[in-house]
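Hello,

Our lab assistant flagged a job as stuck in the queue for most of the afternoon. It eventually completed. Since we weren't sure the result was trustworthy after the delay, we are filing this so someone can double-check. Below is the sequence as submitted and the structure that was eventually returned. Let us know if re-running is recommended.
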Amino acid sequence: VAAAADVAALVVRNKNAAEEARARSQELRLMLETARALASERDLRRLFHRLHRLLGGVLDASTFWVALGSWEQGLMTIPYCVDHYRVLDVVEPMPLQGSLCGQVFREGVPLLMRTPEDWKPYPVIMHGDANSEDVVSALVVPMSIGARTIGVISVQSSRAHAYSERDRDLVVAVAEQAAIAVENSQAVVQADQRARELKLLSE
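-- returned structure --
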């Protein structure tokens, strides 16, 4: 009996080790593919689409959105939003105050919700957040460069316990890379615009 128990325990340990190795391999592949995508893409909408596809390969990203914030205006815009696999155009910006992504933007701390109970501290959810009745699990993470936050990324699911702390840490790492790519893209756009303005002035 003892020998059989030892064998069973060994089988479980080996299975867990194999699952851990597969998960780690997936994460490393995602980070490498993310780095390649961000290095080669300057169009923000295409960039966010590629991020969505990459994350969707390792976790439930049927609902996914990106919000970029402005401290000066006190608003957040949503340049990319997919709700249950449907791409939506969210035109209206939302305030930093009174919204879930606004809270993450202001505090720079990721949120992980896995059950309806986890949502109770956040009774007011504004348009652009997890406002679908069937959203149960969600990850809302800041896009940060050092101590400065420029936006928020969220993935959401209708399943309870769809995300783990490990998923949260993975999305945080992806969001940090995305924040750098967004700033680089915006800097290129601004430089091109300035070059056009100077050219017009010189003519």
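-- support follow-up --
The delay was a queue issue, not a problem with the job. The result is valid. Strands lie at 63-70, 75-83, 86-88, 94-95, 111-113, 137-145, 148-157. The CA atoms of residues 145 and 179 lie 6 Å apart.
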